[in-house]
Every structure is written in C-alpha cells, then in structure tokens.
From TrEMBL:
It catalyses: 1,2-dihydroxy-5-(methylsulfanyl)pent-1-en-3-one + O2 = 3-(methylsulfanyl)propanoate + CO + formate + 2 H(+); 1,2-dihydroxy-5-(methylsulfanyl)pent-1-en-3-one + O2 = 4-methylsulfanyl-2-oxobutanoate + formate + 2 H(+). It comes from the Bacteria. Its EC number is 1.13.11.54, 1.13.11.53. The keyword Cytoplasm does not apply. GO terms for biological process: L-methionine salvage from methylthioadenosine; L-methionine salvage from S-adenosylmethionine. PANTHER family: ACIREDUCTONE DIOXYGENASE. This is Acireductone dioxygenase. Transmembrane segments: none annotated.
Amino acid sequence: MTHLTVYHEDDPGLPELATGDPVVLVGHLAMTGILFERWSATHPVSQDADSAAILSAYAPDVERLCANRGYRSVDVARVVSGSDNIGTLRAMFLDEHTHGEDEARFFVEGSGAFYLHLDQRVFRIVCEAGDLLSIPGGTRHWFDMGPTPHFTAIRFFTHPDGWRAVPTGSGIAARFPGYDGSIDRTR
Ligand SMILES: CSCCC(=O)/C(O)=C/O
Ligand SMILES: [Fe+2]
Ligand code: NI
C-alpha cells in the first residue's frame, strides 16, 4: 500500500507523521498542492511489453489526464531486474532537483519513493501500482528506485523535449533514509 512519511527538513531521524491510511495521505497531499489519485492498474504488463503496448493499455486514463492538465507528451520509464545501467539510472534521480513543469507519474507496476521538499518539510511517498502523482513545476524533490529497482511508470510532459532537471545542489537527499524496495509499516 502507498505510504507517506513527513519529516522536518532538519530531522530525518524523527518523522512527524507516518501513515498508510489513504484518507489521511490524500488529505495531507491535497493541502500541499500535490495531486494524488488511485487509478486501477489492472492491465497486466508482460515482461517484454514495449512502451507502445503499455501506453495503449492505459490510453483512456492517459488521454483524460493530458486533456485535463495540458500534458502534451508521454513516455514510459521502466527499470526492472536485468535493465541496463541500473546504477546510473538510480543515480540520475537521487539528488534534489526541480523541473520547469509538473512531474506527473503513473505507476503501472512496482514501486519507488518520491521525496518532496515543501517549505521546511520533506514528504516521502512510496508509490505503488495504481498511484498517480503530480507535483507542480518548481517543486524541490528527488526519487529513489532502490538498490534492486522494479517499476514501470508513465511520465507526462508539457515541454515537447521531455525530461529536463535542474539540480538544486543542496545535498539534502543524502541525509534522508533511502528506499530499500519495501514499505516500512512500523512507523
Ligand atoms: C518514476 S519515473 C522516474 C523518475 C523521474 O522521472 C523523476 O523526474 C524523478 O524525480
Ligand atoms: Fe524529478
Ligand atoms: Ni513486474
């Protein structure tokens, strides 16, 4: 299940909130301007499905979100056991950065952790299959797919040239717990 942990930016060791309750989670995210929806991720994704097959399986949802929020292109990010350059791919998103457009992602399968740095707080959201998250452009954030990544996500873009990141250079990400591929249900 999707999980939210909220920290003060200066205290990664002591979460202020940790919840897997969807109502609490959606409420907290809505208050901060983050869009979070649960879609049904019921279309099976075979090991060898290509991006076109994945986009076609979710075409109605993809078209609706593009029409409602002005996204103009999509791609599929997929990192699974056996993917090339896993270490490089994980490192690409591990430092705090921003984008000039929304970061809108739908998890078709698997999981990963987003860390959103909002004012003085860090929101850690472990996303799983069926989660749609959209973070406004300019939001400081990072993403950890974990040491043995397994996820497929549809990414929505406004800029025609796709993914572009601006590093903040803050170093904050290294002070927070990474993602080990599971959800910590003890907090
Ligand atoms: C879950 S999609 C890959 C991560 C990504 O695109 C991004 O911008 C992370 O911050
Ligand atoms: Fe990002
Ligand atoms: Ni899988």
